[in-house]
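Troubleshooting: if your tokenizer reports a length mismatch, compare your output against this known-good record of 327 residues.
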Amino acid sequence: MQKRIMPLERRGITTSRLALGCMKLCGGMKATPITAEEILIAERAVDAALEAGITMFDHADVYARGQAEEVFGEVLRRRPQLRDTIVIQSKCGYRVESGSPKMYDFSRDHILRAVDRSLARLGTDRLDILLLHRPDPLMEPEEIAEAFDRLRETGKVGHFGVSNLGADQIRFLQEALDMPLVVNQLDLSLGKLDWLDSGVLMNRTIDQTVRFPEGTMEHCRMHNIQLQAWGSLAQGRFTGREMGAGGTEAERLTSERVGQMAREKGTTPEAIVLGWLMKHPAAIQPVVGTLNPARIAACADAVRQSKTMTREEWYELYQTSRGHEIP
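Known-good structure output:
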């Protein structure tokens, strides 16, 4: 089998096959105060990630209203030697502010302000990667280009990318930029299959119900854009989380098969779920959203599982999770 090299590795940015998502620091989207306990949680998560070989950390300025970056910054302040051994990625453009509607803002001034604030909270002079957080219907590519040029010239951001954009939106934005977009972060997992179904169901009546931008996976692969998967563990649906009354028969059967495969292979359900995702030839980089050190450690074997999982096993999990055989 041909070795799958991540686009970020080809560009010399990182070799970390997994990234740790920091959204849940300080309460996630519902911010909680920064306390000694929150700092300890962050330190333990960072230690577990490093032990598992994860050296890339994914942030956004909206996570915990900025406090996720702030508490991570406190970890960096306590361990100043850590900064040069990790890759920090953050996002901007998703605004959630009291007294205003939720909105996306890719204006030049907002991007510049947002980066300065993220750098201050993180206590660092640079972001390795900056992503635009979801599409902004009002975006002006030339204005974004001005902001990106300024951030690159001042050394505040090394590389740029997007999240949740389709191929046409990426092409539209890239046309105005002098630097390549290096990341597209999407909702991809064994529990979120429209990125696969959109191709498999092509030219069938049922494909009208699938909502995933045509050609996005292929465009990113052709242009050396790293596909990152948020929600990669499917919120724990197949790795031991109690499903309750809302769980489907497909989820139950998939969870059972994932557990069985983990036992047969001497690994963890997390490694099976992530290994399934990483077996895809796009060299997808999962963003692991848990802060639980034990669950982070359970992800460490994902790379090996992606290499040893057979085509038959991959398709079995795909079809079991979708609840129907492929056409």
